[in-house]
Specification:
Belongs to the EamA transporter family. Pfam families: EamA. This is Transporter. It comes from Tepidibacillus decaturensis. This protein is mainly alpha-helical. It has one domain. Helix content is 80%, strand content 0%. It is built from 14 helices and no strands. Helix 2 packs across helix 3, helix 4 packs antiparallel against helix 12 and helix 4 runs parallel beside helix 13. The longest helix is centred in the C-terminal third of the chain and has 29 residues. The chain is globular. The relative contact order is 0.21.
Length: 300
């Protein structure tokens, strides 16, 4: 039975990887503010019936409103703005690769905000993953690191990953009061309302053709609504740690989609960096008890 949930988590990773490729196409049609507003406005419309059917109500408790507002600012506004800014300046491949750092960003945010400790194994995995990212953003030329010459798109995506870490930590606190679906809906509402004053007079779309609306429907319904529903089911049924492992597939699916839909080719340096990141994240997310069990079996 768990294979069904593993499949849903794998499908979630594929949907989120496709989000980067579709987003790369969309940044040529509208500003990052406009794209974020459109994406989440459509997502909110589709989330309403989900929440109404499952929760039998639409309004969250008053004490949860501030945390939901913070989720909207960090996960809807900052994450999407930084992601679209990144896609304007770097490849979808790099964006997908850097997104694999999400579990580590969550752990770092938890360390500073929730005072959760990190083990030596986690620190090793985090260091290895960051090494992989540095390999990619420096294009294998270490002189760029010393001169701080980076692709600004890669740096924007690192900021997006940091925003997602904050969003996840705030979400963990608010989930004690509301469901994942309810929190996603109201984070979207607060995110769109927060963006409205900044985007009201600068809202524009260039050549909104059929392809634009298909890509918009994908990032709004596929990557946001379906992706979040499948992810929440997976976390509920198999746990957060195992679910997080499936984020390692993001760079692989992104590279595949970017090759076929955008004509991007992954370089040898990107491949080395991707493998390094995935190994680092794998080490980071390994359960300590799994390692002890393996050690016991080896001793036997």
């Amino acid at each position: 039975m768990q294979q069904i949930y593993y499949f849903l988590l794998l499908l979630t990773s594929m949907l989120w990887a496709g989000n980067f490729v579709a987003g790369k196409f969309l940044v040529g049609h509208a500003s990052f503010l406009t794209l974020t507003s459109i994406r989440w406005f459509i997502a909110i419309l589709f989330l309403f019936p989900f929440v109404r059917f499952k929760e039998k109500q639409l309004l969250p408790p008053r004490k949860a409103l501030f945390l939901l507002f913070l989720m909207g600012v960090t996960g809807v506004d900052f994450f999407n703005i930084f992601m679209f800014l990144a896609l304007e300046r770097t490849s979808a491949d790099n964006v997908g690769l850097i997104s694999a750092l999400n579990p580590i960003a969550i752990a770092i945010a938890s360390f500073f905000i929730l005072k959760e400790k990190m083990s030596r194994r986690q620190i090793l995995g985090m260091t290895l993953s960051l090494l992989g990212v540095f390999i990619v953003i420096s294009e294998g030329e270490w002189q760029k690191l010393l001169r701080f010459h980076f692709n600004t798109g890669d740096l924007f995506m690192l900021a997006a990953v940091g925003s997602w870490g904050l969003y996840s930590v705030v979400g963990r606190k608010v989930m004690h009061q509301v469901s994942p679906l309810m929190s996603t809906l109201w984070a979207g509402i607060f995110g769109v309302l927060t963006l409205l004053p900044f985007n009201l007079f600068t809202f524009y779309v260039i050549d909104p053709n059929f392809s634009f609306w298909m890509a918009t429907a994908y990032v709004s319904i596929g990557a946001t609504v379906l992706g979040m529903v499948f992810w929440n089911i997976g976390v509920q049924k198999v746990g957060g740690t195992k679910s997080g492992m499936f984020l390692n597939f993001n760079p692989i699916f992104t590279a595949f989609f970017a090759y076929f839909f955008l004509g991007e080719h992954i370089t040898f340096v990107q491949l080395i960096g991707t493998v390094t990141v995935i190994i680092g994240v794998y080490i980071f997310t390994l359960r300590a008890n799994s390692i002890s069990k393996q050690a016991t079996l080896m001793n036997e």
